UniProtKB/TrEMBL annotation:
Name by which UniProt lists this protein: Very-long-chain (3R)-3-hydroxyacyl-CoA dehydratase
EC class: lyase
Coiled coil is among the record's keywords: yes
Known catalytic reactions: a very-long-chain (3R)-3-hydroxyacyl-CoA = a very-long-chain (2E)-enoyl-CoA + H2O; (3R)-hydroxyhexadecanoyl-CoA = (2E)-hexadecenoyl-CoA + H2O
GO biological process: fatty acid elongation; sphingolipid biosynthetic process; very long-chain fatty acid biosynthetic process
Subcellular location: Endoplasmic reticulum membrane
Keyword Transcription regulation: no
Species, as recorded: Seriola lalandi dorsalis
UniProt similarity note: Belongs to the very long-chain fatty acids dehydratase HACD family.
Regions crossing the membrane: 143-165, 185-205, 212-230, 236-256, 276-300, 320-342
Amino acid sequence: MTLTPLVYWAQRHEEIYLRVELTDAQNIDVHVQESILQFRARGHGAKGQNEYEFRLEFLSPVKPEVSHKSTQRQVNITVRKEQRGWWERLTVQERKPVFLAPDFDRWLDESDAEMEIREKEEKRNKLKALRQKEEGFVSLKTGFLFVYNLVQFLGFSWIFVNMTVRLFIFGQDSLYDTFHTISDVMFFCQILAAVEVLNAAFGVVRTAVVPTLIQVVGRNFILFIIFGSLEEMHHQPVVFFVFYLWSAIEIFRYPFYMLGCFDTEWKTLTWLRYTIWIPLYPLGVLAEAVAVIQSIPIFYETKLFSIPLPKAIGTSISFSYILHLYLVLMFLGLFINFRHLYKQRKRRFRTKKRKAN
């Protein structure tokens, strides 16, 4: 004798849902042929652990593709209607089979189903509009970052190439007029670099704010305070070394970011971006420290930027004392940034190695 499981049904305008009450169902066979669904499986139903089967002839044509999903408690079947519409009943015969009952958990009247469709459509439209808005923001952000990195790359490339050419043409003499020939472009690039701090602070790019702030503030301090405010420093060879080391790092860093805007990578450039700083960054800080040490006696003699004290004391604090403290902070910043860059490099190449494996 054939055992039949309990089957619950519900419909939408395009689909039929069947829920077969069969626990731990195995060997499930479900197929539709000429609008007749046949089901067979072994599981625990109303008559215990047995083979169960049933047959349904639908009221209207349905598509032959049928999907089913088995859970520990039941088997869920989805059948798609051949034509969109609302059926007055499930089967051809007016009298429904005794094993069939409405699935009140999913049951909807036609008007409720129409409302459900409208709600889904509204939700889909909202998600689509939100996605378009996000894509527009992403494209705007990508364009902004690309243009910023391109401008910085062109600026530092001009500095690096100009200094290299002048060194070959004029030799040692080019070391003494670096500030007068290069400073305008370097001022522009370093002022523009403040954007990187804002990008990190507002989450435009995913990077730490403190290391970025240390580098930008540190460079601008050297450029504007040490070099810019002291005419005696304009002809010092240390200006050449500071500018050359700064630009040598940036001509690899900014094109790497440019390619990153479009999820593109050039392996050689990636390696250079995460490796070239290892010798150049400490050398750059060392050159900056030399510039600070050379400027200390000048600030002491000229009393430029000295901090006045109350008349009762009758003196002032020379800016040169602050520079002594700055030297300590400079090497502390070197440690923080070096550690940050090393972690970035380790994380980058560890990820690459893991992907390769």
